[in-house]
Amino acid sequence: LYNRKFEAAEQNHRRRAGGGTIRGRDFRVLYEKNRSCFYCSSGGNLEFDHYIPLSAGGENSIDNVVMCCKSCNNRKGQRHPIEFLAEGAK
Length: 90
What we know:
The chain is an alpha+beta fold. The chain is 43% helix and 11% strand. It is built from 4 helices and 2 strands. The chain has a two-stranded antiparallel sheet. Helix 1 (2-17) packs across helix 2. The chain is globular. The termini are far apart.
């Protein structure tokens, strides 16, 4: 079950980005290092998010992925993180 979560994240990111170099093990390492939201520091309901959205020219690489809570991810949407943080993450 644990590994399936990261494999599903890999497949989702590949589908959305039309490919990319992120692997399930990369998501696992990111998750192990960062168990709180990048934007608001909460620890629950975490997801993977492209820091710079793909639609804004962000790359589909692990260097452009952060952990964030579902609430922040939904509110950030396709905005640049600086714009989102200027409004206050929470």
